[in-house]
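Figure S7 source data.
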Amino acid sequence: MTDEPTSPTQDSSETDAGTEREPLFDRIPRRDFMKAGAAAGAMGSLAGCTGLLSDQDDGLASASDVDASVPPGEHDDYYAFLSGGHSGEIRVYGVPSMRQLMRIPVFGRESARGYGFDDRTSEMLEDAGGYSWGDTHHPRVSQTDNDYDGRWAFVNDKANGRMARINLKYFETDAIVDIPNQQGTHGACCLLPDTKYVFGVGEFRVPMPNDGRDLTDPDSYTSTIAAIDPETMNVEWEVLVDGNMDNGDGGKEGRWFFATGYNSENATTESEMSSSDTDWLKAFDVPAIEEAVENGQYEEIGGVPVVDGTRDSDLNGGDRPIVRYIDVAKSPHGVSVTPDNKYAIASGKLDPTCSVIDIEQLAEVDDPNDAIVGRPSLGMGPLHTAYDGRGHAYTTLFIDSQVVKWDIEAAVEAEAQSEDPVVEKIDVHYNPGHLIASESYTADPQGDWLISLNKLSKDRFLNVGPQKPENDQLIYIGDDEEGMQLVKDTPSYAEPHDASIVSADKIQPADIYDPADYEEEYVDHGESEVVREDGRAHVKMYSTRNEFGLHEVTVQEGDEVTMTVTNIEQTPDILHSLAIPEHDINIKLAPQETREVTFTADEPGVYWMYCAFFCSALHLEMRSRLIVEPADE
Ligand code: CUK
Ligand code: CUA
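Tokens for the predicted dinuclear copper ion complex:
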């Protein structure tokens, strides 16, 4: 046990019905807990905790000493934002309980949150390309001064080349940009310390622009990174490079952005793509790129300035190249910058080593390969690396089904391919992709919890048919003497990749909406009406327990109907919705929220409109009639 458990204090705003949080004891290994027990008269939850400790059938994978229970009514210490892969969403978990708290739809419609049903969100999805799905991988939370600031989370769409922003006041997606010149945006991360840009790493090499030219000349295909302004979500510039790109991470001092890449061979088949023993870690010198953009040294492609960062580019010829190509082994996958900003660590994937790049040296050496200062041999299939803030790195070994803990400075001291820096390995179940430690992406990781996001669960859970859940395993890393301890298995729906774990007190979501935050017109009590004009009908009504502002609404066949509906409740957690099933509509209305939906009343008849959230004892009665009169009447 290295530090006292902290109890993030919660802001008790007016609408916050929650009680003061009690300190949680879940970070205390059991023996310390017992030692401390005599002095713990105030620990009201002690009995509950020990009760759970003796109950080993609640998903505990092994007899761990660590208590990760969060008793009913108590809160977790952390938010974890897990990507949902090709389900196109973000999931919010509490850590250490691993309870799923919320799902945030991003790239696909979701009726329970009305997402993609009202005009604003469906137009946003349409403007972002109109695709019906996306593939979220890397949720990154905005930072100020290298610490989480609670403003936004960002996540990429690996399928359709997009980046989305999630507003953490309301835990909902509020912007999506369809990134020009990218087919598949894989890596996503922020340039720190202050989230100046969100970077999207284009995965597939394509002709530039991809307009029918160079179809059969793969050598001329290129991929780009895109620098996105987090406020406007505009792509400010891109840099095109040689080879495919994969993951990325930003340095913590505003200068460097790193992206791994496979296929330095510029090939089009799998066997050719992995024929070389090394591929590139690309280090983008951001101020040098900004200067090139400033000086007009770019070509406008797809509406954005694109700077040439290929190896033969003039911009890479001088003494301050805009992109440094570092040869690392082999088809590297993950890259992450250490909390102290000293090193960027790239995982070998097809090689048992990780490459440790000294960031300060990178700016000074002539040959960027001279900045590789460590190459520990870790095991088979190293993919991603996280940090505890105590000098250790934790790397997933996909093929070995393990997480390896290693000492970063020892790896710099040791000879290349030495196993000496390895501190410890723990089996995970099975085939881990990413892993994430609490606040690992900041300058000051908390060093207590780590989640291994395992691709396979095989027999860890009840059999649910041929498609098994994945397995997100919670591991306690807070005790260097005791070592890593597997605490919990959590089945998860396909398919999480990366995650971010943020201390609970750094995010302050609202309890109810603030009407000043959106453009829709607030419809209060007494303001319900139907305005018909030129084949258009504008229906305005409020909703509250247990009625809509209008008990019936009459329009004409063929009318284009816009409904503006406000939930005028001030009470947190009382949701209504407006469901009009025959018109494929369900808009969710949280307290003080207004949404609009537009549709054509194309068939005469009577359509019940009702509330789909169980809002009160009279919820089922909460309804209104939409009457569509035949056109010839
Ligand atoms: S990737 Cu999926 S396990 Cu998109 Cu960061 Cu490595
Ligand atoms: Cu309102 Cu149910």
